[in-house]
Inverse folding.
């Protein structure tokens, strides 16, 4: 790559992003410089090749934010060399990447073997998301966790909810019926929605209702109900006898997980009529009927779009709100049927689509994305150490108590993540991390920019923006940052002031509105 | 595997402990040592969210609660353990010298804290580094003859020797898989002859050395078959020279003879402890019924996180379970040969100790 | 910021999960209650009797005392037409007063807009807890949402007074409203500015507070304490809101034990709150509303109760006309609505009473229509 350094100033917003003004040959021609004021500032102009590279980096940053939790600049460069589609394939096949060294982790976090308390499990998941080399596997687990919700507040056994996440890790990119079958047999869910309290002749319809309303069909599509109250009852009947083992009491040695069992004596063997089909259905057949429904295809497609592409209206409004991008939903629905309800196949279509690639910064980050993304950027907690529990708590303070959603309907997402309280938490957290020059990821950014000998405020701000994930600021905001960066006069690479200046710019970048978007 | 092994079995005696953040019980215990008479010291590591559970419990082998010390406090804010003198953050090991003083290693603080037998803080060694007499993540402690303290310096993949005043006496080992090399070694013990055994954790083997660090033998390799190991955390040797290994990831205790031949193993036989029963009687009587109808209660027998093993002078074998907050106690059974002049156990004339 | 005249203050405690009205205000005089509740019932001899027909759950002793002092109104059979049994949706309806469409503006958001149309005080409303309830949300309405009252501020980690002042200066310029950006960014900008203003003021509240009252360590107890602290600090805060977390009132199973603990904590928190205010002679301009999104099914399911309709609400305060309001919904089989209590009183009537008779404002635009009032205050 050829990098051309010219000295240039003026209001060159045209060239601030990259050298759209010409090739090196153009720059060499005297005519080119006629209308340009040359002053003492340094500014990179990029060759056409570099421009492509920066665009590729920006696209890869987008992919890694959505299909993962963000990446360092170095990782993005590596992935760009590997290629976009190859990266998508790697993400979709997590088993190809090594898992965490659980032996070393359990040796240090001695409480990770029995994982009794919610807080222990939250610390574990936080660590896992920061360090996983299978980012999409964790992101998909988070995706399903926010839809197929189970809360610790009722289960009161963190490990039992953690085991449900293991199920999402294993099945999350397989087919929708496989996932629902796993869910229906998941002990935490059986307990959370009281299916263990639903008996032949005395149903508890909680699971039956939420399976239809929240987990598969939704309250309605295009203003039509997708199921009736009778369907709820019939589904509940079909799942009678799906229960869990009596638990071993928590005292004196701590809890043991319960297991799923099928009790044929408590199963309603009578005929059921569900969504227009009649038969002596058991739970799996109910799931099969569900997955065939157009509303199930719509449900999965809209949720995938909402989570991975762009914020939609809140879920309860979907009955009356058309999809933001009906074409995209249609494409995903088609893939749902074509692939035999395969989530991984739908994700592959999604990530390789233009609608995905063009949907930059169209999502408000969830608290998990803010915290994990920031930690992956600054590369802290890459090995066992103290402080993991307070770190995990920051996600809770920002409004997402992982493994303990407020209701079975999960969290309100998008703009709803933000209020004055959670915004303060987000800004303070990220600024504290990026302001810590001792952290490896911050060090890397500083030394990279240092090695590029960038000294002018504009160059610093722009390069910092690229380094944290190719963020694009409003012109006004960028102007404020540039002004702030230039306040102390010129800074010299290699000095304390230089690192300080970069660190301050980084802190302000993560304090912007733009950083709240993925 | 040698063909000539004698029939050794482990007989379960009882369980000690229950899960508590203070008082009678332990929380994520990682190590124990036998004190004078029937006392024992148990180190609870607890977890970051509950630093108040970090402590050393003194009790008897009959589960009489004596007291606790070095208890973590939460007054620095949620999840912040204190690093004040005498406090613990990530304790790993405990050893008691001939004077009854208690030495506890902490891998988060790179510290050895010293207490008297009542738990009064006496002093600390804190020398983080990789030079002679410095350490990184100390993970095993054992006293040898003359109160020489052997420390597993896990972060530096070596064993160091100290006089009881902390004077550096020697060291051996480096990172690797060869004889005398280590990969994140963990527990350590010294036998009656003064030989040293190290749980070479990430090499899935036990290594034996002379007191000056001469490599003597090794046994174990990665796996889950009898005799194979998966991340052994601790090792102990009884008066007969038989070797007990906490086979942590395999959730079992394995027994080897003095040459490293596999003898037997147990996956645990835990029962309700005295403190455990008291917990149910006192305020949780409904749990008696819950236990009666619980499905899969047999899981309670099994080890969960057998992280440390200790054999006392009386031949009792203690297995500390980090994930169950209890200690299972066993005794070794084996055929004995009674020679001329010896008498059967329980008869006049003492117990024979002859072995085939 | 000390207010000279005592403006009416509204405190709202939201009981998320759907409180079981039948086991809270117990119709002990109606044998049909016991017929329908073979397992999940409050025995008649344990009910804190109000009259021959109804009484309070035995764990509500401190609230019964307030009731006996004539300072608590119990509104029975509260709901809305076509009850929705989804937590999310039903709570939204209570929050937005929009039973037929998905509303985005909260009734209190609109109230705040009326109280402080020029946004002169960023602390007109304060929420305690994480995440802003939709009741308080309205475009352009600043509401401070406080997780931890003790450490509240923007860019608090920047070391050095000058550096932090500089950074806050840049921050305030970045977040000042600009044109032509997306709605979400505008919302973020406004939220950031509100946070900046509110933070410094709020952080002074705990410093100036002292009290002999000791609140419980449960979440509701602690947040009621924070509400008292902010009220007593005199920031001109008119609406204070908090939520019993984790949908804890969702008692599908194991209800008797769970419900007992919930009402023990909640009653203590409410009683401590009023003791605290009285100790500071600051109770007479405070009205407390306690509500939940729906009641539960009439018949129990063996160990709990499922989502139903026909809930209840409490209004507590020195100026409340204590007593029972509204008719207790009939437990007669034919009067039930799909096995649920039929609501008698629209919740928007309660809101109307509060807004008009306590806050002294026009309720119609806030609750979306005219509803019959109760003579509550």
């Amino acid at each position: 790559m050829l990098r051309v350094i010219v000295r240039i100033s003026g209001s060159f917003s045209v060239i601030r992003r990259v050298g759209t003004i010409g090739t090196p040959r153009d720059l060499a021609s005297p005519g080119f410089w006629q209308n340009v004021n040359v002053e003492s500032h340094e500014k990179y102009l990029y060759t056409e090749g570099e421009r492509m590279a920066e665009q590729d980096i920006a696209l890869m940053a987008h992919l890694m934010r959505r299909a993962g939790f963000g990446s360092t600049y170095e990782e993005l460069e590596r992935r760009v060399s590997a290629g976009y589609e190859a990266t998508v394939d790697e993400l979709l096949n997590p088993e190809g990447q090594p898992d965490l060294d659980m032996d070393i982790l359990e040796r240090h976090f001695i409480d990770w073997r029995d994982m009794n308390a919610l807080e222990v499990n939250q610390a574990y998941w936080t660590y896992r998301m920061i360090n996983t080399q299978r980012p999409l596997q964790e992101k998909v687990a988070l995706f399903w966790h926010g839809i197929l919700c189970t809360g610790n507040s009722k289960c009161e056994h963190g490990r039992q909810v953690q085991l449900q996440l293991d199920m999402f890790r294993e099945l999350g990119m397989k087919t929708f019926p496989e996932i629902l079958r796993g869910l229906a047999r998941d002990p935490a869910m059986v307990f959370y929605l009281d299916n263990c309290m639903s008996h032949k002749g005395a149903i508890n319809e909680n699971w039956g209702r939420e399976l239809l309303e929240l987990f598969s069909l939704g309250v309605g599509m295009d203003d039509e109900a997708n199921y009736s109250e009778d369907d709820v009852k019939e589904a509940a009947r079909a799942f009678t006898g799906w229960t869990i083992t009596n638990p071993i009491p928590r005292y004196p040695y701590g809890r043991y997980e319960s297991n799923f069992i099928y009790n044929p004596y408590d199963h309603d063997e009578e005929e059921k009529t569900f969504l227009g089909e009649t038969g002596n259905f058991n739970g799996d057949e109910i799931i099969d009927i569900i997955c065939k429904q157009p509303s199930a295809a719509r449900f999965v497609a809209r949720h995938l779009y909402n989570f991975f592409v762009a914020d939609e209206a809140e879920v309860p409004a979907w009955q009356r709100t058309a999809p933001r991008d009906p074409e995209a939903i249609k494409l995903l629905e088609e893939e749902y049927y074509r692939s035999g309800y395969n989530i991984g196949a739908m994700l592959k279509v999604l990530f390789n689509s233009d609608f995905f690639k063009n949907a930059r910064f169209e999502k408000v980050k969830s608290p998990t994305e803010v915290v994990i993304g920031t930690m992956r950027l600054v590369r802290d907690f890459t090995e066992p150490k103290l402080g993991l529990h307070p770190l995990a708590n920051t996600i809770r303070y920002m409004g997402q108590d992982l493994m303990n959603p407020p209701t079975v309907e999960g969290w309100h997402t998008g703009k709803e993540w933000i209020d004055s309280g959670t915004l303060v938490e987000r800004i303070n957290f990220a600024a504290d991390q990026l302001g810590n020059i001792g952290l490896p990821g911050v060090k890397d950014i500083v030394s990279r920019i240092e090695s590029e000998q960038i000294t002018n405020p504009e160059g610093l701000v722009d390069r910092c923006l690229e380094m944290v994930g190719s963020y694009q600021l409003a012109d006004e905001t960028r102007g404020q940052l540039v002004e702030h960066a230039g306040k102390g006069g010129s800074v010299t690479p290699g000095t304390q002031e230089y690192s300080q200046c970069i660190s301050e710019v980084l802190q302000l970048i993560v304090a912007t509105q733009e950083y709240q978007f993925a | 595997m040698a063909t000539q092994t004698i029939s050794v079995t482990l007989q379960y005696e009882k369980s000690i402990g229950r899960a508590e953040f203070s008082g009678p019980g332990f929380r994520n215990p990682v190590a124990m040592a036998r004190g004078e008479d029937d006392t024992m010291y148990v180190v609870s590591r607890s977890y970051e969210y509950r630093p108040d559970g970090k402590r050393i419990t003194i009790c008897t082998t009959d589960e009489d609660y004596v007291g606790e010390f070095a208890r973590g406090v939460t007054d620095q804010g949620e999840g912040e353990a204190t690093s004040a003198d005498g406090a613990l953050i990530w304790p790993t090991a405990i050893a008691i010298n001939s004077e009854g003083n208690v030495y506890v290693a902490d891998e988060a603080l790179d510290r050895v804290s010293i207490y008297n037998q009542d738990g009064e803080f006496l002093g600390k060694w804190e020398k983080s580094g990789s030079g002679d007499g410095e350490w990184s993540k100390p993970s095993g402690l054992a006293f040898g003859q003359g109160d020489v303290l052997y420390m597993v310096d896990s972060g530096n993949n070596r064993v160091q020797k100290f006089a009881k005043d902390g004077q550096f006496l020697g060291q051996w080992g480096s990172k690797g898989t060869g004889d005398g090399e280590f990969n994140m070694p963990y527990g350590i013990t010294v036998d009656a002859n003064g030989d040293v055994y190290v749980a070479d954790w990430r090499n899935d083997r036990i290594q034996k050395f002379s007191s000056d660090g001469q490599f003597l033998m090794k046994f174990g390799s990665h796996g889950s078959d009898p005799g194979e190991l998966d991340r052994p955390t601790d090792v102990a040797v009884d008066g007969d020279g038989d070797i007990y290994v906490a086979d942590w990831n395999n959730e079992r205790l394995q027994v080897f003879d003095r040459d490293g031949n596999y003898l037997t193993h147990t996956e645990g036989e835990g029962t309700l402890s005295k403190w455990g029963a008291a917990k149910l009687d006192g305020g949780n009587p409904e749990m008696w019924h819950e236990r009666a109808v619980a499905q899969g209660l047999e899981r309670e027998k099994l080890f969960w996180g057998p992280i440390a093993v200790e054999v006392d002078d009386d031949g009792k074998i203690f297995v500390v379970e980090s994930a169950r907050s209890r200690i299972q106690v066993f005794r070794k059974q084996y055929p004995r040969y009674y020679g001329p002049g010896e008498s059967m156990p329980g008869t006049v004339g003492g117990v024979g100790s002859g072995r085939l | 910021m000390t207010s000279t005249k005592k403006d009416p203050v509204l405190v709202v405690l939201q009981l998320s999960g759907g409180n079981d009205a039948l086991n809270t205000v117990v119709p002990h005089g109606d044998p049909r209650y016991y017929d329908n509740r073979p397992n999940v019932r409050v025995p008649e001899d344990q009910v804190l009797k109000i009259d021959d027909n109804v009484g309070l759950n035995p764990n509500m002793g401190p609230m019964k005392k307030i009731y006996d002092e004539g300072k608590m109104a119990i509104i029975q059979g509260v709901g809305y037409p076509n009850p929705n049994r989804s937590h999310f949706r039903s709570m939204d309806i209570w929050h937005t007063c929009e039973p037929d469409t998905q509303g985005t503006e909260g009734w209190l958001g609109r109230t705040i807009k009326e109280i402080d149309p020029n946004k002169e005080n960023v602390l007109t409303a304060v929420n305690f807890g994480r995440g802003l309830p939709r009741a308080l949300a309205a475009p352009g309405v600043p509401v401070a949402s406080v997780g931890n009252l003790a450490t509240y501020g923007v860019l608090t980690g920047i070391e050095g007074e000058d550096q932090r002042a500089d950074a806050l200066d840049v921050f305030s310029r970045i977040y000042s409203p600009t044109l032509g950006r997306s709605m979400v960014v505008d919302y973020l900008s406004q939220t950031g500015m509100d946070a900046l203003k509110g933070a410094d003021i709020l952080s002074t509240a705990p410093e100036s507070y002292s009290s002999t009252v000791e609140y419980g360590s449960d979440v509701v107890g602690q947040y009621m304490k924070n509400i008292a602290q902010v009220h007593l600090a005199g920031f001109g805060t008119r609406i204070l809101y908090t939520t019993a977390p984790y949908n804890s009132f969702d008692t599908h199973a194991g209800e008797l034990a769970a419900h007992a603990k919930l009402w023990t904590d909640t009653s203590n928190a409410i009683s401590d709150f009023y003791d605290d205010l009285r100790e500071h002679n600051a109770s007479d301009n405070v009205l407390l509303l306690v509500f939940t999104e729906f009641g539960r099914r009439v018949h129990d399911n063996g160990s709990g109760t499922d989502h139903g309709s026909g809930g209840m609400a409490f209004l507590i305060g020195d100026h409340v006309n204590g007593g029972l309001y509204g008719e207790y919904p009939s437990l007669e089989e034919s009067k039930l609505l799909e096995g649920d209590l039929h609501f008698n009183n629209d919740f928007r009537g309660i809101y109307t009473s509060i807004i008009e008779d306590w806050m002294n404002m026009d309720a119609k635009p806030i609750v979306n229509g005219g509803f019959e009032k109760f003579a509550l205050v």
